[in-house]
Description:
The protein is mainly α and 92 residues long.
Amino acid sequence: MTAVSTARLEARISPDLQKMLKRAAEIQGRTLTDFVVAAVQDAAQRAIEQAEVIRLSLADQQRFAEVLLSPPEPTPALKRAMARHDELLRTE
Length: 92
C-alpha cells in the first residue's frame, strides 16, 4: 500500500466555534477533522468557481452565441494587430 502525502493546517478558534464544529460533525457522523476538511474544501471550490466561471444572462448567452456564429468584420486596428502578430512570429 502506498503512503498518502498530507500537509498540516492549524487554526486558532474560539471555544464556542469549536463546540459548534464538534456538534455539526457529530450530527453528520464525522470526525471533527473530517468535517472541517470537507467544509474547507467545499468553501475553496465555491470561491474558485465564483472567480473563474462567467455567468451570463439568457440575453447575454444568446448575443455571445450570435457573435461566435457570425463574427463582425475585423476593424482596421485589429487588422494591424494581426499583421504585427504575423510579423513577430515570422522573425523568430
